[in-house]
Amino acid sequence: xxxxxxxxxxxxxxxxxxxxxxxxxxxxxxxxxxxxxxxxxxxxxxxxxxxxxxxxxxxxxxxxxxxxxxxxxxxxxxxxxxxxxxxxxxxxxxxxxxxxxxxxxxxxxxxxxxxxxxxxxxxxxxxxxxxxxxxxxxxxxxxxxxxxxxxxxxxxxxxxxxxxxxxxxxxxxxxxxxxxxxxxxxxxxxxxxxxx
Length: 196
Fold this sequence. Notes:
By secondary structure, the chain is of the alpha+beta class. The protein has a six-stranded mixed barrel with strand order 1-3-2-6-5-4. The chain has a four-stranded mixed beta sheet with strand order 10-7-9-12, with no helix packed on it. The relative contact order is 0.14. The mean pLDDT is about 90.
């Protein structure tokens, strides 16, 4: 897993302070760690981009007010519904032999055979919630869609994450290949014509 440094500062709490932070172009966040509790923090937007806008889970060395670095991962991030700007972030710290719950990005690999036949690949699940030891957190989970045919789907039960438990129903669809709506409508019209 790639490791990245993130320098943040402690912040005051309260709605008024959070609003002032956002108005000044900074992003409020919280750092959590088992046995420590929570620490309100803030970061500049640019520093967060490489952690938020990525297909990989990144291990973060979090420097709070230039203290010793704390190992953590991005737990959650909130966006403004209109501007899509980052409005809040949560970092969760860990110890390497501690079991924790994290969401790991899903990356599709290969080109679906169904897409070559005119189907549309629909990627519905983008993150996989897993439980594992901190040292075993993968940067991402790869799903090979090469053999995905039209009308078929790949489910959570088809995914494999070494040394981890997937915390989601096995029947949850990750990705499927469907016919375009126009093709479905045309097929329905053809069937109706043949039956009449």
